C-alpha cells in the first residue's frame, strides 16, 4: 500500500527534477532539485517545466499568456501596453546591467499576440537564457507542469509561488 501511495505521488502529484544550467539563476541554483506539479492551470510568472521538439527539458518562467501582446522597453515589461513589475528579478539584478534588451513580440516572432494554446517564456537570468527569444512560443502540450518546490540543496528548500 505504501509503495502504491508513493508511486501515485511520484507520477501524478509531484515529480522531482534536477536543474541543469544557470538560466533561472538566482531563483533556481544549478544542480538544485525541484518538484513540479503536472496538470495545473498556468498563470503569468509561474515557473514551468517543458520539453522542446527534440525532447530536451527546460525550466522557464511564463511571461505572456495566450492572447496577450508583449514588449520590453528600458528593461521594463509591458503586457497589452500595461507596465507589469517583475519583482523576482530584483534579487540578482546589477544596477548597471540591462537584464532584458528592448523588443516587441512582433519583432521577435512576427505575430502581435501570443497564439492560443501557447506561452511566451523567459529565464530569470535573462542575459544567459535560451528561451522564447530564441525558440519561440511554448505549446501548452509541451508543458509538463508547474514548479512548486525546491527540495535540494537543503539550505535552499522553498515553496515557489
Q: How is this structure best described in words?
A:
By secondary structure, this protein is mainly β. The chain has a domain at 19-28 and 43-143: Ribbon (Umud Fragment, subunit A). It is 13% helix and 34% strand. The protein has three helices and twelve strands. Strands 1, 2, 3, 4, 9, 10, 11 and 12 form an eight-stranded antiparallel beta sheet that branches. Strands 7-6-5-8 form a four-stranded antiparallel beta sheet.
List strands and helices in order, with pairings.
Elements: H1 2-13, E1 15-18, E2 33-38, E3 47-51, E4 57-64, E5 70-73, E6 76-79, E7 82-84, E8 103-104, H2 105-109, E9 118-122, H3 132-135, E10 138-139, E11 143-152, E12 158-159
Antiparallel strand pairs: 1-2, 2-11, 3-4, 3-11, 4-9, 5-6, 5-8, 6-7, 9-10, 11-12
Active site: 23, 60
Catalytic activity: Cleavage of hydrophobic, N-terminal signal or leader sequences from secreted and periplasmic proteins
Domain Peptidase S26: 1-151
Q: Give the class from helix and strand content and strand pairing.
A: mainly beta
User: What is the number of strand segments?
Assistant: 12
> What is the terminal separation in angstroms?
32 Å
What is the CATH third-level topology name of the domain at 19-28 and 43-143? Answer: Umud Fragment, subunit A
Question: How would a crystallographer describe the biggest sheet?
Answer: 8 strands, antiparallel
Share of helix among residues? 10-25%
Let me know the average pLDDT: 84
Encode the helix/strand succession as letters.
HEEEEEEEEHEHEEE
Instruction: Kindly provide the radius of gyration, computed on alpha-carbon positions and rounded to a whole number of angstroms.
Output: 16 Å
Highest CATH level, the class of the domain at 19-28 and 43-143: Mainly Beta
Number of helices: 3
Stretches where pLDDT is under 50 for at least 5 consecutive residues are: 2-10
Question: How large is the share of residues in beta strands?
Answer: 25-35%
Domain Peptidase S26: 1-151
Active site: 23, 60
Organism: Jeotgalibaca ciconiae
GO molecular function, one term: serine-type endopeptidase activity
